[in-house]
Amino acid sequence: MSAQQDKHGELPTMEDQINAVGFGRFHILAVTTFILFIISDGMELVVTNVIWRAMPVEEWGGDDSMRALLVSLSFSGFVVGAIIGGQLGDTFGRKPILYAHTMVFVPLSIASATSESFYQLAVTRFLIGISMGLVLPTSVALMAELSPCNVRSRLILLIPGLAYAVGQVIVLTVGIVLMGYYGWNCEKCSWWRGMLVAGVVPDVVAVLMVYLYIPESPRFLLSQGRTAEAEAIIRSIAETNGTESQLLHQGAIRPVKEEHDKAEASMEAWQLMGELFKPPMNRILPLVVGVWSLLAV
What we know:
mainly alpha, 13 helices
């Protein structure tokens, strides 16, 4: 039994059960899935700069100023998606938002790759940016809600920290190879179209893994009063990790049904944010911010 159960005679909280299950095979699978989503994001955010010289810019009546516009449209869409993604996830759940992202991202990537004008490309890049913004906060939130507290901050930082770099390196490396083969300026090149749709590959793999292996957030289910479903997910994670014997009270979870429970959940969220300012994060965070700021100069 948890300390809380001993003290108050109540069932364990969600946090008690997730910590009891611990880190294991399930979490490796989950973080790999979310990294694949964000690798796709990383690819999309830099691809326009890589393919610009191979695109029929003059034929479309454009100039170099339009490159900045295309890049800014992707980032602007990303901001919009990130703002609404968290709210939608809290309303409809995490998994529906991941599915919605892919349902928007895949056809828009194809439409972007088949663009026949600058305006078609601009619109699709902005909408793709929105879909990318949806997936980042959702992936990070779901990873946090499935992870025990002793590894939570490391896992959620690993997702964007590793995935963006990998995605950008893939696009830049492939772009350098293709530009070296076809030349910096080639008429009627079509390889740039393939680059615009390449980000679909890791995204589709990720959404298939979500469908097959990743459950809905048990914290979200608990907040909706779906306690039995949340308990079933906790037991499933424990089974995957091989830690069923560590479950408290056979995996039962105290329902969130009273005002003081909701207040405790709100306080828990603030406590989780406080982890950023405790070891080891209080040493890592300034370094990350400093390096990021230096690279942005």
